[in-house]
Amino acid sequence: MMDIMKMLRARKYMKRNEPFLASWHAYIGYEMGLFTAFERPFTVEDVADAYGIDEVLLEQWVKVGLSIGHLKEAGRNRYRLKNRWKLPKPKGQNSSGIILKEMMELHIPALLSYPDIMRGGERNHFDERRHADMVAETSRLLEVAAIGKVARQLRDLKTGTVLDLGCGEGGYIKMLAKRFPQIQFIGVEVSDSVAATAREVNAEQPNVEIVCSDLWDFEPDGDADVILMNNVLHYIPLDQRAKLFGRLSDWLNDNGVLAIVTPIAGHADSPPFAHAFNSFFLSFDNLYRLPAEDELKRWGVEAGFDFLGFQTVVKEGSWYIAQYRKEFKSA
């Protein structure tokens, strides 16, 4: 009886993991450009030859694609895409595939390292030079979801300055700068390569300046009217976050607005991904746990902000915008 129960449990776990196969297959297709290859009917042999890749492994990838519905037979041993709209776009087309890439190359390996870390092994180390461009591209997708909410804060600003801290590849600033040409935008990015991309993206935007600097070294020339900070807090040690809020307050005019896009540590009833995401950060020695709601409120109040509330960006990933207004101090 015990052996039967063990087998049933094993089958149950296998069944639960079937959705992972679709993610794995989509990641390989995105990373290798194979979905582009099979947009028209081709044989495995022809694609393997054209791409210079292992034909046996490609054939297995095709078989998985057929079984999960990413590919379909097209006759004469040829295969083509099925339901193209369900699959990630090719690289360079603002593709959701970058999220699969980050998950497969960064998140899952980190989570699989938990047994070694829990036994006392060393934590992972986030290699900025290796992953900065990928993480910046992922952030860009999330910023698209948040841009409408942030734009509402800028509509009444006739002129002024907006600081975007952790501006990434600059796509976010570019969209806002086009919509609000009367506002000066200053993007701050710590990675040299990502900052260079941001400058290139905004080369034709006269109201955008990109600065390559660490947050602790950066000093603005004057006070800002709005500060945006996207996906930065998990790079800041917990004991320095209250200090960071103080610096942000010092950089804002009275009545200025601070908008922080960040994942938030999950509650007991939060989606599983929120807890798994925090687990990922805790597996690194140079990344830090996500903030809790009460911490975000407390740090803001201690720095002289009125807390305006949270707005949802991506509920499943526990991504929110925390918004604040700097208290007006009369002379």
TrEMBL record:
CDD domains with a match to the protein in the record: AdoMet_MTases (cd02440)
Domain of life (superkingdom): Bacteria
UniProt keyword terms in alphabetical order: Methyltransferase, Transferase
Residues forming coiled coils: none
Signal peptide positions on this chain: none
Keyword rRNA-binding: no
GO terms assigned for molecular function: methyltransferase activity
InterPro entries named in the record: Methyltransf_25 (IPR041698), SAM-dependent_MTases_sf (IPR029063)
Methyltransferase domain span: 162-256
Keyword Transferase assigned: yes
Gene Ontology biological-process entries: methylation
Record protein name field: Methyltransferase type 12
Lineage: Bacteria, Bacillati, Bacillota, Bacilli, Bacillales
